[in-house]
Amino acid sequence: MADHTLSNGITLNVEDAGSGPPVVFIHGVMMSGHFFHRQVPYFSRDYRVVVPDMRGHGRSEKVLHGHTVANYARDLQTLFEEIRVERPVLVGWSMGAMVAYEYM
Predict the structure, then answer these.
(1) Dihedral, CA of residue 19, residue 38, residue 13 and residue 56, to nearest 10
(2) pTM for the whole thing?
(3) What is the greatest pairwise CA distance in the chain?
(4) Confidence band of 1 (pLDDT split at 50, 70, 90)
């Protein structure tokens, strides 16, 4: 797990493991990337697994602004550009699915 301060000023806590095609797990509201902790060891054998805590969630920066699906998707886009994730497979749970749809 590492903190990434994005160019938009938001700091996200991100787990980035393995190598290969990227698979990104996106948690639901009031949750964190820890929700996917059992998937990381399995998928990171063959894929690059990226598991961010969205702004205000989990170990990411606790900010009081920007808590919309559109902003979460923009945060992902910025994160992907900065850590060089191209053509990710997005796996969203609950609100995470809405963020994935907005990202697309």
Answers:
(1) 140
(2) 0.95
(3) 37
(4) confident
